[in-house]
Amino acid sequence: MSEQNHELLVCRDASVGYEGQAVLEHLNLKICAGDYLCIVGDNGSGKSTLLKGLLGLLSPLSGEIWRAPDLRQGALGYLPQQTQAQRDFPATVYEVVLSGYLNQKGFRFFYTRRQKTGALMNMGKLGVLELKDRCYRELSGGQQQRVLLARALCAASRMLILDEPVTGLDPAAAQDLYKTLAYLNQTEGMAIVMVTHDLDAALQSARTVLHIGRTGWFFGTRGEYLASPQGKRFRKEGL
After folding, report:
1. Cβ(224)–Cβ(207) below 8 Å
2. Are 40 and 234 in contact (CB under 8 A)?
3. How far apart are CA 53 and CA 48, in angstroms?
4. Using an 8 Å Cβ cutoff, are 134 and 93 in contact?
5. DSSP of 35-102, one letter per residue?
6. Which of 220, 181, 168 is nearest to 77 (CA)?
7. Could you report the per-residue pLDDT of 63-74, keeping only the tens digit for each?
8. Contacts with 192 (C-beta within 8 Å, 6 or more apart), sequence order
9. H or E stretch including 146?
10. Amino acid 104: pLDDT
């Protein structure tokens, strides 16, 4: 199997929900190394619930959500939507980024030299190295998202999952973040899975699209989605 066809995450007839009540049913999709998947759809259709399933935080009610061994061993990074409390977090940029290695730290009291070097490298990739001694809560929204993305990279070597990463950002900062994600995908080979309402911008980079509606779902390539009834309606309504 080539690297490009290396399966990282597969949903096989998967249904997800809470307390036995399915929000999304009979989903089939495959995410391979280097893929760029955008998840779009109506509010309340189950996008956030699906992310919990993909992350392994929620077991499927039926079917299977399979994750490759390297994802189960920590090769997956997650960038959730920020709360106000998180925006006001009183720590330095370096401390926030380094905390991405917490799950790999084990019972050691200190971070390793490799982890400290990795944090600095990821800050360099995201253009926030010069901010490393600044307080996180003093940064702009765009700078904070770059810091959180650098933190997620410390946890990830194969896949990033992002939940509405441009919410609250001005258009310039949003475009800057999209360019960064495209770089990580195309140059670093990182698989990207992103929930977004910014469909036009997302489709510039997405290879595949999962549309979740209240009456079902659609999964296919960008071209297939744009030609589908769901894609045509979604773009027309500007949802």
Report:
1. no
2. yes
3. 9
4. yes
5. -EEEEEE-TTSSHHHHHHHHHTSS--SEEEEEE-HHHHTT-EEEEPPPPHHHHT--SBHHHHHHGGGH
6. 181
7. 999 999 888 776
8. 35, 36, 37, 159, 160, 162, 181, 184, 185, 205
9. helix 141-155
10. 64
Using an 8 Å Cβ cutoff, are 157 and 73 in contact?
no
Task: Please state, in angstroms and rounded to a whole number, the distance separating the CA atoms of residues 97 and 151.
Answer: 4
Distance between CA 142 and CA 111 in Å, rounded?
A: 27
Rounded distance, CA 118 to CA 136, Å?
A: 19
Four-residue CA torsion sign, 2, 190, 76, 112: positive
The pair of three-digit structure tokens given for residue 19, joined into one six-digit string: 């307390």
User: For residue 2, what pLDDT is reported?
Assistant: 45
| Longest CA pairwise span in the chain (Å) | 54
Task: State residue 12's pLDDT score.
Answer: 97
What is the side-by-side order of every strand in the sheet holding 216-221? 76-79, 159-163, 191-195, 36-41, 208-213, 216-221
Work out the pLDDT band at 169, boundaries 50, 70, 90: confident
Residue given tokens 């290879």 in the structure block:
207
Residue type, 110: F
**CA 85 to chain CA mean position, Å:** 21
Taking each helix axis as running N to C, give the angle between helix 141-155 and helix 171-186, from 0 to 180 degrees, rounded to the nearest 10: 20
Q: Assign 3-class secondary structure to 10-44.
A: EEEEEEEEECCEEEEEEEEEEEECCCEEEEEECCC
Contact 24, 217 (CB under 8 A): yes
pLDDT in tens, 31-58: 999 999 999 988 878 898 999 999 989 9
What is the value of pTM for the model shown? 0.86
